[in-house]
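Marked as duplicate of an earlier ticket. Keeping the data here for the record.
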Amino acid sequence: MATETLTLGKALNTGLRRALENDPKVVIMGEDVGKLGGVFRITDGLQKDFGDQRVIDTPLAESGIIGTAVGLAIRGFRPVCEIQFDGFVYPAYDQIVSQVAKMHYRSQGKVRIPMVIRIPYGGGIGAVEHHSESPEAYFAHTAGLKVVTCANPQDAYVMIQQAIASDDPIVFLEPKRRYWEKGPVDLDAPLADAYPLHSARVARSGTDATVLAYGPMVRTALDAATAAAEDGRELEVIDLRTLSPLDLTAAYESVKRTGRCVVVHEAPGNLGLGSEVAARITEECFYSLESPVLRVTGYDIPYPAARVEEEYLPDLDRVLDAVDRTFGW
């Protein structure tokens, strides 16, 4: 097996390259994705190798990018749209919610929209306004869309290919603060044998409390588990991976064993994904819970200026404090 150590960003680049090689109907489109290779260089080298008819530099018009992709998808292509930053997706929100999410339903199942909308999301890179947001709840709330997020290079490489191969429209969230983190990637494993796209996975086994996270917060949760282990407390960390549809099978099994649960995400807590997860965990695991399900999230304010973003983002200490509180009941 060809296992290489890649950054998460390079794993995405390699996965996109594989998708372009394997299906001539795959096209990549977005602002600066071609000659520049994207702001984060995720599409670096792809236009040079596949041409500007398949890796397309678009005007600065997110609604136009998504609207064009809808037409391409209806005609049998598999467009992969890059939204340059999370906060730039809102001009395209009408297209995504009114067209991308509804077309299959509106056509009584006759029309498929096999497209992927890639969105770098989250903070931690010292960016300016509209460059560090976490808009996942908007899309997870929208029936007709599927929403997934990777947390490590192996998942990035596999999940982007699975998303492109899907016949459903998928919002693919990429944790930008993790683009440069490295990990092993198996480049030869058949995609058919890969872990299912819409399934959560246990990232670290434990017995004392369950920590649920996704995207950029998986690393934070794992770091918290390592720190907790030094004090003799074993945390089980579950990477949700899929936000819509939510897969909580592994979470239910874990919470029924540990009796305690903490949900972590960067987005504000009010009506965030953690609210839905906490409700479902409480319904399914009520008689196993030793304490309420707690949430560690961003605050209910607009994303702050870069100089104070570390005060806003959930960190190891806030996760460990929540775990401690679950033991105080």
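See parent ticket for discussion. The longest strand covers residues 261-268.
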